[in-house]
Amino acid sequence: MRAFLALLASLLFAGLACAQSYPSRSVKVIVPWPPGQATDIAARLVAQKLQDSLGQPFVIDNKPGAGGSIGSEAAAKSAPDGYTLLAASSGPLCIMPNGKRSRMTR
Fold first, then answer.
1. CA 8 to CA 44: how far, in whole Å?
2. What is the model's pTM?
3. Side-chain half-sphere of 24: how many Cα atoms within 13 Å?
4. Contact residues for 35 (Cβ-Cβ < 8 A; gap 6+)
């Protein structure tokens, strides 16, 4: 029983030992549409709320073009550290990957 309690305590406190506050620096939000478009406006509203809540800047980076694939690709190729977010609609995320797959099988 003691061993079980020790194991349980070590599992509970392991996360605290490595935990860092997020975000500890600015966060980039990539919007694959031009400024003023609906997704851009929604991303700016959410980014402002996150900035107020978390105390770090959330910077909007508009990367329009190619039906949203340019910005989506930039987000996909960014470092997987949680400091680059993508604010996109369903087109670049759902439809374009299927189109690429069908071209590859021909």
1. 42
2. 0.73
3. 4
4. 62
Residues 6+ apart with CB under 8 A from 82: 22, 23, 27
**For the chain, where are the alpha helices, taking DSSP H only?**
2-18, 38-54, 69-76, 90, 96-105
pLDDT in tens, 1-38: 666 656 556 656 665 555 578 999 999 999 999 999 99
Cα R_g (the chain), whole angstroms: 20
Mind listing the domains of the chain with CATH numbers? 21-105 (3.40.190.150)
Check: CB of residue 65 under 8 Å from CB of residue 80.
no
